[in-house]
C-alpha cells in the first residue's frame, strides 16, 4: 500500500551538531513532499517543501533532499538548537489526494 | 495574517455522546482538511471541504461528519463517541486544497478525551 515512513523514531544530538532526519516513501506518483515540525501541544508547523522536479531545496538552516530513484527524502538541520527539539513528520502528496504522513521522528537536542 | 484557529482546545466527553469541533481557516483559504492524530496511528486524513462541498474523504466510519460554511469556516462532528475516538483533531487550510499541490497550514488542534 501507500505509506510514508521514517527510518528512526528518535534522534538525539548535541546543540550545534547537524541533524539528518530520513524518510522513505513508497508512492512513486507522489509529486510534492513536505516536512512538518510538531512541538508538544501544538499542531504541525510547515518547515520546508520540495516538488518532484527538484532534488534539493534550502531554507533557513534547513535543507531537504529528494532522491526519487530510491524514494528517499531527508531533512538536514544545520547547527541544531534546543528549540529544534520536536517531532518531525514527512508527508507526501499528489494532486487530488490527501497528504500521507509518516509516523514521525522525535528529535532531542541537548545543550 | 492570522493562522488557523480551532475551538475548543480541549474537550472531555463520555461514551455515546456527540461532539462538534470548529475550525477557522487562514483568510483567503477555501479548503479545510481534518485529520485525526493518535500515538498509535499517527496523522490520518478524515475529510476535506472546499467551497462548502466535501471533496475528499478518508477511511473513517460515518459517525465522523463535517460541513463548511460560506465563510470557509468548518465544523466536524463525531456522534456516538467511542473510547478510541480520543485523539488530537487537527484542521489544516490551504487555498486550493487537495486539487492542487500546495502546503497545508495546521491549527493547534482540539484534544478530545472520551471517558
Question: Describe it for me?
Answer:
The complex is a heterodimer of chains A (111) and B (115). By secondary structure, chain A is an all-beta fold. Chain A has strands at 4-6, 10-14, 19-25, 32-38, 45-51, 56-58, 62-67, 72-77, 86-93, 100-101, 105-110. The radius of gyration of chain A is 13 Å and the shape is globular. Chain A is built from no helices and eleven strands. In chain A, strands 2, 4, 5, 9, 10 and 11 form a six-stranded mixed sheet that branches. Chain A is 0% helix and 54% strand. The N and C termini of chain A lie far apart (40 Å). Chain B is mainly β. In chain B, 0% of the residues lie in helices and 52% in strands. Chain B has no helices and eleven strands. In chain B, the strands form two sheets. In chain B, strands 2, 4, 5, 6, 9, 10 and 11 form a seven-stranded mixed sheet that branches. The radius of gyration of chain B is 13 Å and the shape is globular. Chain B starts with a strand and ends with a strand. At the A-B interface, strand 4, strand 5, strand 9 and strand 10 of A face strand 5 and strand 10 of B.
